[in-house]
Design goal:
Elements lengths: L8 H33 L2 H37 L3 H36 L7 H13 L1 H16 L4 H24 L3 H27 L7 H7 L1
Helix pairs in contact: 1-2, 1-6, 1-7, 2-3, 2-4, 2-5, 3-4, 3-5, 4-7, 5-7, 6-7
Length: about 230
């Protein structure tokens, strides 16, 4: 944890903001990597399916970034005031809100993905693959939201570098799993979406363990979280 209340303001702001900028870039790479590998190995229709999904996924990314920024501000205020009890309560609230939000979005996304694509007048030959890709992606929403929430918590406590490291590892894992599932196992567009889910899940679980080990004011466990929900 880094104390941002002391030191030169301009230097602290730049040091804190740059990892966030790079993190957003790596976040976008998930879809870009899928597009490159799918375009090279699965053909034009599969590539069009991924491209059609991108505006919806971008909306999802924008939503979770906005939520995360709000949580970061609240946690930062309490952390800067050294009110660690309220920091803990805010962290619990963050995970509860993101958990239920991810479940609702998953259900709604899978239920209405076909209707959304029809509204965009997506060609019928592309629709089945686009729906398959997006539905599998929606199944990983809980991991995506969970990792974004954990990143927001770390940033609220003055640590913007660690989320970037986790994001880099997740992006590299996504590339390797894309190649494994699409090129080696030949699982098609479903394999690309599954690779993204696994990468996000790995980043989320690793970030939780990191929080528990290196931040004494945080004590999270999956069993406790389930009982709270």
């Amino acid at each position: 944890m880094k104390d941002l209340t002391t030191g030169k303001e301009s230097k602290l702001i730049v040091q804190f903001a740059m990892p966030m900028v790079f993190g957003n870039v790596f976040q976008q790479l998930y879809n870009v990597v899928d597009s490159i590998i799918i375009g090279n190995y699965l053909g034009e229709e599969a590539l069009a399916a991924v491209g059609a999904s991108f505006p919806i996924l971008f909306l999802l990314i924008a939503l979770v970034i906005g939520l995360g920024s709000g949580f970061t501000i609240i946690i930062a205020q309490y952390f800067g005031a050294r009110d660690y009890e309220k920091v803990k309560r805010t962290i619990d609230t963050t995970y509860i809100i993101l958990f239920f939000a991810s479940i609702l979005i998953t259900i709604a996304g899978i239920a209405f993905s076909g209707s959304i694509f029809k509204l965009t007048e997506l060609p019928q030959e592309v629709l089945p693959q686009a729906q398959q890709y997006l539905n599998i992606y929606f199944l990983g929403t809980i991991f995506f939201f969970g990792f974004s929430g954990t990143s927001a918590i770390l940033r609220g406590m003055g640590d913007s570098k660690t989320p970037l490291y986790f994001m880099i590892v997740a992006t590299v894992s996504n590339i390797l799993l894309d190649l494994l599932f699409v090129v080696v196992f030949e699982w098609g567009i479903e394999g690309a979406a599954l690779a993204t889910i696994i990468s996000q899940a790995g980043a989320f679980i690793t970030a939780i363990f990191y929080l528990n080990k290196y931040h004494q004011i945080v004590n999270l466990s999956f069993s406790i979280s389930v009982r709270k929900f």
